[in-house]
Amino acid sequence: MSHLPALSDFIGTKRQQSSVRVVESAAKSNVADLVSEEKRLRNLFTGMSRSLSHTSARIARNKKIVKRSVQSAANNGAGSNEDISAHTQSMSWTGPYDTDSVELKDDSGWDTDLEIEEVFEAFDHSGKTSYIDTCHRNKVVPVSYYLRHMHETELKLRHHQLGSHAVKPIAISLVSNAKILSLDLTDNSLGCRGAYLLCNMLRENCFITHLNLSENHLGTSSAEMLSNIMQITTSLTHITLSKNEFDDTAAIFFAEAIMNTTKVESLNLSHNRFSEMGGVALGPAIGENSSIKELNLSWNSLRRKGAIAVAQGVKNNIMIKRLNISWNGFGVDGAREIGKALAENTTLEELDMTNNRLTTEAAVLIGKGIAVNDSLQAIKLGKNPMQSAGCWAICSAILKNPNMVMRKVAFDVSITRYTSFSNLCFLNYFSLFQLNECK
Known about the structure:
The protein has 439 residues and is an alpha/beta fold. The chain has helices spanning 4-76, 81-91, 128-138, 144-149, 163-174, 191-204, 223-232, 248-260, 276-288, 304-316, 331-344, 360-370, 387-400, 421-438; strands at residues 154-156, 182-184, 210-212, 238-240, 266-268, 294-296, 322-324, 350-352, 378-380, 408-410. A 10-stranded parallel sheet has the order 1-2-3-4-5-6-7-8-9-10. β6, α10 and β7 (322-324) form a beta-alpha-beta unit. α6 (191-204) runs parallel beside α7 and α11 packs parallel to α12 (360-370).
């Protein structure tokens, strides 16, 4: 009997716990009902607010129509106040809005004829808008010549002395310009800062194919940026960088670009400061290149080991068709390697070696290559101290080659009062020979 009180207490505790669980389940059910009711009311309120806003807009529109009708009637002398009042009442909203007939989740039930449509402006393919805005922000006077020609495919903005400050808006506008395909900014004092701005533009622009930045004092500090552009470009095919004070250090960067580029077809690095070590850097790159068809290295100081390296690169190259190495210092050693290159190269068509210290011995060495070459069509050897014997060696090599396709040989020998009679006879003979070959 002593266990009965404990048993009754245990049963009472269990009943209390059961009651608590029932109350908790009921409370949770009530909370869920309240949440669902709140969502329904919220949706109803949203729908009513939207419908009221549309109704207000419709009333405003009707008022404008009535006002225009009144003005029209006053101008035409027709209509009466009673008609206008009746028309106004017929268009006014009277009575509560029927929310039960509107499906809140169905957008087709809403009147959307008053919604404002977005007006998209046409894309500016010339970049004129961005150019003018950038000029205003940077306090730069817009270049009228650029504004007149920015819609053309070829832009020649030469000798304007723009400087890096004025070229910044041009570079920004060219990012979105889809018209200009050829850009010529010769002699504008761009400097390293201007080169930086243009390189950033060229990373984004995929339309410009011809670029001329000659005579802009770019210097060696710009060479690395230009080299990177040459390696990653997908559109640039013709690049002219003459007269920009590039030295042997810059030649290292350009050598990397020449070796890795796959798009550039024409490269002009003339009138710079490449010397012997610059030629040593450029030579192997020329041999590895597989895209450049026209290369201009004239008016530099390529000599000795540099000249030999460039000539060996030409020998290994399989793409170059036009090579200009005039006004350098190839001499006999360079001529020996050029002769070997002509004997093995099967793609070179035009070679310019004007003013390269080529003696009679050098001409004989070049002639050995010409004697077995079957692709060269034009060669320029003017302003070289090869004398008549050297010229005769070149002509003899041409005559001995049965597969020769030569069309033009230029010696550019000036005739003065000191020219001997034998040289005059040779020049007369060579002129007849060249004329017959051209025919």
